[in-house]
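User: Can you model how 6-O-phosphono-beta-D-galactopyranose sits in this protein?
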Amino acid sequence: MKTFRKDFLWGGATAANQFEGAWDVDGKGVSVSDVCTNGSHTNPKRITPVLEEGTLYPSHEAIDFYHHYEEDIALFAEMGFKTFRLSIAWTRIFPTGMEEEPNEAGLAFYDKVFDACLKHGIEPLVTISHYEMPYGLIEKYNGWEGRECIDCFLNYCAAIFERYKDKVKYWLTFNEINSGTMPMGSVLSLGTIKGYSGVVMDAPDKPQERFQGLHHQFVASAKAVKLAHEKYPQFKMGNMCLFATMYPYTCNPDDIIETQKKMQMMNWFCSDVQVRGYYPYYADRYFEENNISIKMEDGDLEILKEGTVDFYTFSYYMSNCVAKEADADATSGNLMGGLKNPYLQASDWGWQIDPKGLRYTLNEIYSRYQIPLMVVENGLGAYDKLEEDGSINDDYRIDYLRAHIEQMREAVADGVDLMGYTPWGCIDLVSASTGEMAKRYGFIYVEKYDDGTGTLARRKKKSFDWYKKVIETNGAEL
Ligand code: BGP
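Assistant: Here's the modeled complex, given as structure tokens:
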């Protein structure tokens, strides 16, 4: 029976805006995340184009990876990481997104980070844009609704590809690009919220702008892939989707159809474009029924064909149920909701825990595309307790990860070509949905708290040694 390949990429995942801090250091500009306040499960985070005195903006310091990268990467190496997923903050390289020339200090920072990874034999896996587009592009173009963003993005890609061509091989264009098919994507991913101030989740939803923005992201992603393939044949280019696995709530055919429709537009639409190179057949009807009409330029459809990705990556945290008539309880999670599954437990944030759903999902994706897959986010956001003796006994996290790795192993035995696994927030960092620190994912605890206080000291959790063993045995000992 097949098991994890010898060169399986075990590691962990992060994003610049959630862990770097140093938000205005060395010439960095303001990203959309830098104007988002903190929040919690019950108190939603807000976006404030003008910074408010006395309000906490968690990206500003985060866990200060900017000044702790050597120590942090050494800890990842101690666990045996083969890869480390991080994002480049676009605003460190192009502060407003519109400059002609890159900011040397920003480029130099990632040189140091990649050198530290390579010194430890860790392969960087870089997300080019992870919920941190320059706020300047939002003000000027209403984010990705503006076609101009394509050139700005390409300029950014050209600069980082050339600079890091000998250090980085694996690239992902847009984090969770399909968040743009849902209202939640308009703020962090698409930035189609020019002038909006208020609760992030309450931003007015304009599907026309969202899908126009997505089209521009598709073209930008395809152009970046094409540039990489032509100029840097050693690069491997991936997409990245938020996979929100959905089950029909009942076997009522109405529920089956409703689930299929939602799966198409939320989970498959973007990757159908990015992997196959063209808009899927079912999109036409959706656009028609939702009054969406996408403006394209000559050549766009050819570019999409020429810029298909080499591998498919996704985040997987949970599954949900779908019914035509919602009379079941709603669940929360990944900012997109769904119905409760009576067979599953949920995290403290209401995200339903479904390891078998991961095996199912891996099989579904692989049977559709047959290109290598990678799970680049997965994990349990939980309240951790720092004991008096300094230990953090996160057995619940070990249980969650063990169960998911077991199911990945099953999927590999099923024949799925899986390249790697990078659990989310391998070191504690700021939550994307709530802006809080209390929702922790890490193998490494960071003494940083929701009120902004904390020494920033790093401590190994119980899961640290457990994961080290998993990597050492290539997933045989869980
Ligand atoms: C994904 C994002 C990440 C990350 C993760 C966990 O949607 O790509 O940035 O934060 O979810 O979500 P949260 O931080 O809200 O718990």
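A couple of observations from the model: The chain has one domain: 9-472. The first helix runs from residue 16 to 19.
User: Helpful, thanks.
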